[in-house]
Amino acid sequence: MYGKLEISGVIESLTGLHIGGGSQFAAIGAVDSVVIKDIQDDLPMIPGSSLKGKLRSLLSKQLSFGNLPKEHNQDDDRIKRLFGHAESKNPKTSRIYFSDIFMSEESREELENSDMDATEIKFENTITRSTGVANPRQIERAIKGIKYNMSLIYNIENESEIEEDFKLLKMAFKLLQYDYLGANGSRGYGRVEIKDLDVKALIVDEEDENCKNVIESCKNILKEV
């Protein structure tokens, strides 16, 4: 069985979320660190690369007994199989494709029907211990409670490894819920909940009984997140 499966779900921010957007110029008194936003509507978004990198690093640390390998090519073989690797002898592309993740229509409507902005400015200080000098800064965060619609594409390459790949992905999602997404996690930023996960066949023979069973099994695996 070969083809593609879509993994859909919702990422909901439980605390303020900061994924930096960068800035070429900051005027005096301006926000020091802004969040990345969709250029079309100027609303916060989650880059697919940010989610992919976080899931991979969490898995890599988990499967290496807490010691994060220095190089991606030193990851566990199961991780390299799912996320890809660049080993010179036999490089492999990722089995799972990540798209940028945008705000749900539900959250858009809630913002439109309220006086809330999609982001907030948090004032923070870092203090030099030796001198006691404070370095104040302003950090922009996407507010808590925003829901983002996630869509991932899984490429079927080896039927016998599909369920193992999905169990690995389930582990990554569970780890993320006890960690953080974006920056400043130790300061309370970036806690998220992943929910409403589903699996849908895109390019497979849905009439094939074995295919139906595999898809149902994948759905059941992700329901446990």
Plain-language structure description:
- This protein is α+β, with helices and mostly antiparallel strands and 225 residues long.
- It has five helices and eight strands.
- Strand 5 and strand 6 (134-142) form a beta hairpin.
- Helix 1 packs across helix 4 and helix 4 runs parallel beside helix 5 (209-223).
- The longest helix has 16 residues, at 162-177.
Helix-strand topology string: EEHHEEHEEEHEH
Radius of gyration based on Cα positions = 20 Å
Report helical residue fraction: 25-40%
Q: How many strand segments?
A: 8
Poorly predicted residue ranges: 24-30
Major pleated sheet: 6 strands, antiparallel
Question: What's the multimeric state?
Answer: single chain
Report the principal-axis shape.
globular
- Cα-to-Cα separation, first versus last residue: 26 Å
> What is the overall pLDDT average?
88
Q: How many H/I helical runs? A: 5
- In percent terms, what proportion of residues is strand? 25-35%
Pairing-aware structural class of the strands and helices? alpha+beta
Characteristic key phrases:
single chain, 225 residues, alpha+beta, six-stranded antiparallel sheet, two-stranded antiparallel ribbon, 5 helices, 8 strands, 25% strand, globular
Structural topology:
Blueprint: E1 3-13, E2 45-46, H1 48-62, H2 77-83, E3 96-98, E4 101-103, H3 105-112, E5 119-127, E6 134-142, E7 147-156, H4 162-177, E8 192-201, H5 209-223
Antiparallel strand pairs: 1-7, 1-8, 2-4, 3-7, 4-7, 5-6
